[in-house]
């Protein structure tokens, strides 16, 4: 791999496995579950890690190594490990680092399955979680106890597009000697690099904008080498590894991440401005709209506003359902960060099991609609939204 540091776009394209004797231009696909040894001594030295080399694809594989190396360069991280899904990354990271009796302080508005993991599963191993409101960062320190080990958040949040000050989280983590972990899925490393603000680990669901075309699942955790070492050892034995095929797809996708995300953000800002001017819309949340309550923080820590726009349609749950039914081109789907624009109405779908009060705790009002703005021509996206609103 190339050691000279280059610009983001160049690293994404030029970080590549060494060529084989075939002198291929594009990285080949290494679909192999294991690797062979020269002799008994080679095998011994490899298993004791005196030699750094591939042994078995649950541990490492050339395609996953290339993918991880790129994400490390993009996030400014020392080391990383790639997972089959974003949730495998979240679970394995926490499970590797936490012991019985440990405590997590997390934002309440985190990805649904992450919330379920903290609330329903970790208590089985005597790991507890306290949640803070993302819009009340001044309360975070009051949740920290002597057992607290990890501080966790996402920014922007899903689906309400709230922003938290990463600099503030970094200083709280430092003061209380906590491991700060940020799920950077919505921003991507192109828009925001949490390690710069003091995060020790960054998690991605690569399923979203990193793949960017709705094809494969994947996840990755990068950050401090000593923490990654623990996560690697845990994962090498428990088996959440990313498949080499998906790693190959994702590494290719990273080559176009910057151009795709630039265009996603340009389209999303136009969609947000259109919605803000529409009479059937109560409010719009987009990080780079001046009306966003944390606009200044967003500007400070993000390069652009991302591709997700949230807005509240007038008329609550019924209006939200009617709007979805009137959509013609955009997809009704649970994914996000795809080339295809996707709309979802959380109150009647992903969050319909929550009470209204619980929904409001994570800023999900009855009329909230989330749009993952895609790469279709922006006029076509806007005209679909317009006809559905009307
Ligand atoms: C989708 C998502 C995840 C989970 O990723 P999967 O690849 O679906 O397992 C985690 N965090 C955030 C913010 C997500 O959007």
From TrEMBL:
The modification N6-(pyridoxal phosphate)lysine is found at residue 208. It catalyses: O-succinyl-L-homoserine + hydrogen sulfide = L-homocysteine + succinate. InterPro entries: Cys/Met-Metab_PyrdxlP-dep_enz, O-succ-hSer_sulfhydrylase, PyrdxlP-dep_Trfase, PyrdxlP-dep_Trfase_major, PyrdxlP-dep_Trfase_small. This is O-succinylhomoserine sulfhydrylase. SUPFAM superfamilies: PLP-dependent transferases. The keyword Oxidoreductase does not apply. Coiled coil: none annotated. It is an enzyme of class 2 (transferase). Keywords: Amino-acid biosynthesis, Aminotransferase, Methionine biosynthesis, Pyridoxal phosphate, Transferase. Catalyzes the formation of L-homocysteine from O-succinyl-L-homoserine (OSHS) and hydrogen sulfide. Pathway: Amino-acid biosynthesis; L-methionine biosynthesis via de novo pathway; L-homocysteine from O-succinyl-L-homoserine: step 1/1. Homotetramer. GO terms for molecular function: transaminase activity. Its EC number is 2.5.1.-. Its cofactor is pyridoxal 5'-phosphate. Belongs to the trans-sulfuration enzymes family. MetZ subfamily. The keyword Amino-acid biosynthesis applies.
